[in-house]
Amino acid sequence: MGLTPNDQTQLLLCNTSNPKHQPLMSVVDKLNKYYGKNKIKFANQSLGRQWKMKQEKLSKSYTT
Question: CA-to-CA distance for 64 and 50, rounded, in angstroms?
Answer without folding.
Answer: 27
